[in-house]
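Example 3.
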Amino acid sequence: MRGDSLVPQSGQACPSCGHPGMEVFYEVESVPVHSVLLFPTREKAMAYPKRDIQLGFCAECGFMANVVFDPGVHEYSSQYEETQGFSTTFQEFHRALAGRLIDRHDLRGKNLIEIGCGKGEFLTMLCEIGNNRGVGFDPAFVSERSVSDAKDRLTFIQDFYSEKYSSYHGDFLCCKMTLEHIPDTLRFMQTVRRSIGDRKHTVVFFMIPEMRRILHERAFWDIYYEHCSYFTAGSVARLFRKSGFDVRALGTEYDGQYLTIEATASDGEPSMPLPEEELAAALREEVDAFSASVSGTVRRWQERIRALQSQNARVVIWGSGSKGVTFLTKLGVNDQIRYAVDINPYRHGTFMAGTGQEIVSPDFLKTYRPEVIVVMNPIYMDEISAELARRDIRADLLPITENSEGTI
Ligand SMILES: [Zn+2]
């Protein structure tokens, strides 16, 4: 941590607006460069490469980014196990979102494109429900997992989306939880804009983590290496406008964790800001408040985990993805927490990047019998309670965000 004041980072221009001088307000040393890769042994997991995060703020457009991000360290492959599709909470959300998008934009019998489609679950759903045709791009796509009635109408390209695919056109272009992985935000959005050309009917839908919530909740577990770019409603809208889009709608999903933006190709005259768009000046106060108090949040969690250990309480975390890796990396409590529970069977028996906890199934808890489970994403509290009840496991559930107001 650098403390309260913002330190100008000379020579670093904002990747979203070009304004010189991103100001660093939060630093994390030695975080795993990937947090959702699968490792067969604890040694391999702990030896995985680490880099630093220096989160910078652009006073001009409000964009935030890791100014020392090195995209060369990443390997997005089929070993990249990011899917949340095993959670019923997430599946219900995904299905409801697909239904809303189909209704709102009359996506029936249409051509759809998804950039960063992961394992293809969402595109498949859109094509099944709306009888659409879809093309999905993702280097982490795994073909064996796609079983669908809409299979003949789906094409998956196991590659990053880029200029060379700009001949693929759709009535609807969707990009969920991907833009936060892209360092050259303006250049990427300009590529997307060029691919649309003068097809003004094409609706563009993006979903990304909502950074104002992260700032408000001091959610340090939501700032990790894969995510180099962090947006608020205002900063993403300004990026879209600068890239040649008219911003049609801004919203949030998943208990305010995700930010959504809908846009269409612009005629040239920039559209007027929407009421949801906060000014960059207003964000500075929130950035300062996060910077001043996040180390206190980390310290309180460390004290709490140590206190539990001194009572000989067994503690596990629920959720072995990026939030879990970041939480454990920041806390440095590897002796106190040895296991992470996950419902994704593809992760069981593997180890968490950097910190080396073994990833176990909920069934493992029947023998391990933890007293306390720290829940990495509180939206899954009900689902986790049900999983525990079904196995007759009693444990205290601690939601990670309960300390957001400064008390645990
Ligand atoms: Zn900027």
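Residues 14, 16-17, 19, 58, 60-61, 63 surround zinc ion (CB under 6 Å). The longest strand covers residues 23-32.
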